[in-house]
Amino acid sequence: MTENSYAAAGVDTAAGDLAVELMKAAVSKTHGPNVLGGVGGFAGLFDVSFLTAYKRPLLATSTDGVGTKVAIAQALDKHDTIGQDLVGMVVDDIIVVGAKPIFMTDYIACGKVVPSRIASIVEGIAKACSATGTALVGGETAEHPGLLGPDDYDVAGAAVGVVEGDAVLGADRVQHGDVVIAMASSGIHSNGFSLVRHILAQNKIGYTDHSNEFGGVVGEVLLEPTRLYTGPLVNVLEDPALAGSVHSLSHVTGGGIAANLARVLPVGSWVEVDRASWSPNSVFRVLSDLAGTTLESAEGTWNLGIGMFAVVAADAASSVVAKLEAEGIHSWVAGRVSTAPRDFTGFEQGAKGVDGGAVRLVGSYAA
């Protein structure tokens, strides 16, 4: 006689409970006095009484995932870095408007709950939340047998932050003569992995292969986690000596360099980003060589070494760079904003429904 039960259908609730127990300590470390109820409730509770100190508190929210980078983690059975990728993709969007993140939730869909695997993913999320001052107040692990394979999973998350109403960053603050500061990426971060995987497949390169060109095991190099910018940028924004000097920020994710910077510039303004101001990470050069293409052809897909931009007042540029460097983020001047009339042929103008400024990359990359 065929057994009719949830377990027989492929869902193991006991494994889910064990996963929660394994992750509980890491999640609890992200909790301060504002988090109520601990781990395991139906909903996370966060005390926002501190918002009464704001004149006009605005809540900022963002949601995202990691994309097909998870396929590499699954192939290597290495799951301790994907969590940082998730937090970076979500929280570093919130800081773009000047908001300080306060809490986050996550969602993991999988074909089969393997408690140690789920705990490893969540521990990575929790560590990154701690590094960005974000409380991980809740989450969900959903088992989808028959829809996902036993070793398949996907991750997503959402976060909430707060910013004072008159401190919101954006294109309306940007002025002629402002300086564009680039912040170095740690590698590919979490965008463009469909192209990465396509290039490797075309060249019959496996994730577990050792490659002198890549400088190690291919998959491990590609799993380098997304750099977290929120903590250092919060410190920059809260530095009294730099008050008001940062006008806009841009997180370089899907769409590449020019399009993302254009989104945070006012209509009619333009920037030429000088390629000679930095040398793209070696992983981008290797992948471009394998594809038989140029770095320039990937500027709309990969970050090519720039994970975040800051558009700042000219008289504060050197101080902002120095502060970011002190915070561990390599930074440099990559261009200047102009509102002088010009022909915009060859420029990227706005992106993702935003009528922004115009940006193009010029020159040749540094060796």
Walkthrough of the structure:
- This protein has 367 residues and is an alpha+beta fold.
- The chain has 2 domains: 13-166, 2-Layer Sandwich (60s Ribosomal Protein L30, Chain: A), CATH 3.30.1330.10; 171-362, Phosphoribosyl-aminoimidazole Synthetase, Chain A, domain 2 (Alpha-Beta Complex), CATH 3.90.650.
- The chain contains 10 helices and 15 strands.
- The strands form 4 sheets. The chain has a 7-stranded mixed sheet.
- α1 runs parallel beside α4 (115-131) and α3 (82-94) runs parallel beside α4 (115-131).
- The longest helix is centred in the middle third of the chain and has 17 residues, at 115-131.
- The chain is globular, with a radius of gyration of 22 Å.
- The termini are far apart.
- The model has no long low-confidence stretch (mean pLDDT 92).
Outline the low-pLDDT stretches: none
The helical percent reads 25-40%
CATH topology of the largest domain: Phosphoribosyl-aminoimidazole Synthetase, Chain A, domain 2
CATH architecture of the largest domain: Alpha-Beta Complex
CATH class annotation of the largest domain: Alpha Beta
The tally of structural domains comes to 2
Count of alpha/pi helices: 10
Distance between the termini: 69 Å
Write down how many β-strands occur, each being a DSSP E stretch of 2 or more residues.
Answer: 15
If you compute it from the alpha carbons, what radius of gyration comes out, rounded to the nearest whole angstrom? 22 Å
Helix and strand run: HEEEHHEHEEEHEEHHEHEHEHEEE
Shape: globular
Proportion in β-strands:
25-35%
| CATH superfamily annotation of the largest domain | PurM-like C-terminal domain
The computed structural class is alpha+beta
The average pLDDT score comes to 92
